[in-house]
Amino acid sequence: MGPELTNLFELAVALVCAMFAYVQHRRATSAIVETQQAQQTTENVLNFFDQTDDTVTIAPPEVQGRSFKMSQASKDWITSDRRPEERESLLRQVAEAESKRLGVYTISVPSVWYNIEYGIPSGSGGSGKGVPT
């Protein structure tokens, strides 16, 4: 084998090694980005359910609806003994808050108000008659 052929062979091996290194670098960079995104997602979900943290007030897409939507039994409870217009207003307010994926909110009509936390009426702060304070 002549020196030119040896040089050509070494060049081919170096090129294959460079291509392999490039592919490995791209995979590593992609894995780092995916890990960072997963960590951010996890942090957002945890912050959404952390009652002392108000940085995430809207449920991230990863949070399932049952985590913040009100059950039919709770809707029946908050609307029991209410006039039809108040019943409609309370249910509309719940629907609006759920469409915005809110975890904590207050609904009210002239005769009563409720604090809602993750679909459950009367969480901390409770409920009351009249205008919420």
What does the main sheet amount to? 4 strands, antiparallel
Beta-strand level of the residues, as a percent range?
5-15%
Q: Give me the Rg, rounded.
A: 29 Å
Shape: rod-shaped
Mean pLDDT: 85
SS-derived structural category: alpha+beta
Q: How far do the termini sit from each other?
A: 92 Å
Helix fraction bin = 40-55%
Helix segment tally: 3
String of helices and strands: HHHEEEE
Low-confidence stretches: none
Q: How many DSSP E strands?
A: 4
Description:
With 133 residues, the chain is an alpha+beta fold. It starts with a helix and ends in a 5-residue tail after the last strand. The mean pLDDT is 85. The chain has helices spanning 3-49, 72-79, 84-99, and strands at residues 104-109, 112-117, 120-121, 127-128. Strands 1, 2, 3 and 4 form a four-stranded antiparallel β-sheet that branches. 53% of the residues lie in helices and 12% in strands. It has three helices and four strands. The chain is rod-shaped and about 100 Å long.
